[in-house]
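I would love for you to help me understand the pair of lines that follows before we discuss the fold together.
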Amino acid sequence: MGDTSFSARRSVLSAMVAAGLALGSQQAAACSCIVTATTGAVQISGTVATGSAAIVAALQLGFDKTAVQVNASSADSADRIVSALEGMTNALREDIIAQPAIEAAVKADLEEKSPAYHATNECEYINRTNDSKAADVILGAQQEALANSVVAYNEITSQYEETVNPEVAFKAQTNQLLTAYPGVKTAPINIIDGPNRVGAMTSDEFRDASRALNLTLNPMPAPKIAAPSTPAEINMNVDADLFNMRMQLPQGVSQTILSYEAPLLDLPEDSWFSSILKRMSPAEYEAFTEDGRSVSYSDLLKHMATHRMKDPVSVANAATKGEVGLKKDLALVKADHLVMDYELWLQDRYQSLLLSQLVSSQIRQERK
């Protein structure tokens, strides 16, 4: 029993020793793993630390580069923005400076194309100027011819032989004149009625009217001696010349007034007077052309001063005009009236000359 128990104990002990040895061996291996693990951990830690530093350095470098790029980009953007703003400012400044010119150009273009900004038929004034210029030239020549006829009348009718009674001789000449030109008797009617009708006198009517005025205003020119040989005869001729010179004033004035009814212009289709008369009164235009009438200076004046109020085209256009166009129309109407005012002033001047001559003649007669 004792031996058996000892053997058993010994077996147990052996087993325990073996187990201890095995455990010791396992513990040694465990320590080795721990050391190894610790060493690896340190290496990993160092690697991680090194990697973290690199990452941090890389991130910092990236951040710095990004900051530089951002700053550079911001500066570039700011510079571009400032340049753009300056460009916009300069463009706005130029536009603002140019705005009045642009508005003026737009207004000029509008005025050029819009009838509301224009006077009615303003281009017709060019044609009217042509009519007026031609009439002025002919009127001037006509008035000069009439003045010469006054002088000729006063001279011819006062040249009598010494043995002839001047009064008897003058009456005989007057009777011969009236017989040869019967229209002289009715000429005063044509003179009075002339301004009230459209169209000039005919050439015969005008000639008779001129003679009638000379006969009326100087019915008996003072007689003159054809070849004076004594101081008395010379004085007589001087008195006759002075008398005739005084009478030339009313005669000349009356002839000048008469010249306003003289035939000055024919009526071509393209004339201003023709187009205006056709618009103002088609019936009167037709009668005018059918009778072959000529245009007198008084016709021109009357139509120039009144055609804008009588012309249906001008009256109708006035209703569609803007303020600018209407003012232009009114300005042209005023200009036409000023022309007529000047002519009326001339007529008043002529009448004043005639009245002054009549008064002076009456005074001379009362002093005799």
In short: Residues 274 and 324 are 29 Å apart (CA to CA). The chain has a mean pLDDT of 74. The chain has two domains: 1-84, 125-367. The longest strand covers residues 159-160.
